[in-house]
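hiii so my PI (J.) wants the whole complex modelled not just the main chain, which honestly fair. so below is everything: two entries, each one labled with what it is. i double checked the lines twice but i was tired so who knows lol
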Amino acid sequence: MEDDEKKAAATAWFVDLRDRICASFEALETDLAEDGLPAGRFARKTWQRDGGGGGEMALMHGRVFEKVGVNLSTVHGILPADYRAAIPGAEAAGGAFWAAGISLVAHPRSPLIPATHMNCRMIVTGQSWFGGGADLTPTFLDESDAKAFHEAFSAACAKHPVADYERYKRWCDEYFFLPHRGEARGIGGIFFDNLASGDWHADFAFVKEVGCAFHAIYPALVRRHLGQPWTVEEKRAQLIKRGRYVEFNLLYDRGTMFGLKTGGNVEAILMSLPPEVAWP
Amino acid sequence: MEDDEKKAAATAWFVDLRDRICASFEALETDLAEDGLPAGRFARKTWQRDGGGGGEMALMHGRVFEKVGVNLSTVHGILPADYRAAIPGAEAAGGAFWAAGISLVAHPRSPLIPATHMNCRMIVTGQSWFGGGADLTPTFLDESDAKAFHEAFSAACAKHPVADYERYKRWCDEYFFLPHRGEARGIGGIFFDNLASGDWHADFAFVKEVGCAFHAIYPALVRRHLGQPWTVEEKRAQLIKRGRYVEFNLLYDRGTMFGLKTGGNVEAILMSLPPEVAWP
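here's the output for the full assembly
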């Protein structure tokens, strides 16, 4: 399989996953019947990147999801010289890169429903690899939610010899950590990068498994808490918890940095930021 | 004058400026009579730094100031090896540093009253210098506020041969800029760093002038808008504008970075973050 075919296959699959997830999220909006707000629907907006490529944002402000963004991007170009050392294979390729991916951040309205983040990406420089993962950020820990989320990704990894669940889980815990507060961002999940086993098809199959596992488990967790009443104190705690999310994304997140450094679409990159936040 | 005397003199003056500003801000709280909320009062809290020194936070949640923090810190120790290159004289001193300063960020409740930031600091490594400045961040530009603010600092600089107003104003505009949005954080003011003319007393006199100029102008600008009614749309615009403030402080601000890298007090460093923020 030629490189171009691999790129096309990965890109097409990201689009397909986006469509399926958006449909499931809109179904949750419909199914939450008792709220005074209308059911949310995604609004889509394409963007072009100066320097090559572009993407499509899907953004919904609903009654289950106070704000959820699902971004697709397929970008290519030349990395700034001062950023190449941070990207494997970038120096060898004279800074040339191609990257495609799906990135999702959901901030539910209910403080009892965990926020989440999911990302799958394929990157090509002088090398080619996949990365991705998914993690959960509850304001109030529900042990059974956490267990189900972790089990979903443990099971996804178990089906694929190229994956190493224990390592990816640890990587997630290490990555989504706020050193200045000595706090984890959430309860983790999995995180992987530089996945290039030598068998592209096997790697891609695993990445698809991660996307499908996310699609199977997260809407199911949301559904568990649909319609549960919450208090203003719980909502306030959620707004403060979201502050940690902002701190992580702006101080430490490599994806945010990659996007801003490569002249990505600012609206798309910062779509991850929560709709309302408090720092008391 | 010995180094220790200079450090003591600067530190004492930062304390005095803090006391005078806090008193003026509390007077504004008292003078806004028609609001349903009680007049705010500063709560003070000292903190110790692991590795040397400490500080005192003063935080107020009032009816004029939705959140205002005034921090004093006097810290010393050894800079992390990977951070020394960024600090003049740090390598020569084996990483040893001493720093004292006052830092203020005010987020008024009314979207018609501009937010502000002011900082004065003295730093000693293998070299010794002052830095500081003040800037204004209105949600809605009031030309006469902007003019009065700029004139205050122009006049402060004009009294001191060690100061260069045009350069400090430009430096402020360049510093408080969000490249990813191509937007200024606010309307600027002045910013200076590495001020070491060779005459410490002259430099210190200018720093004091900056603190006094801020104390004279900012409460006066707040007073202009005390009690002016505002709309929910204006308040919403303020919450969104505050998002830019957060983006700047977490993505770019050197003071935030210096504090987090040198193990400063996280609560004090992040006291600058606004009380309520929106990213729509």
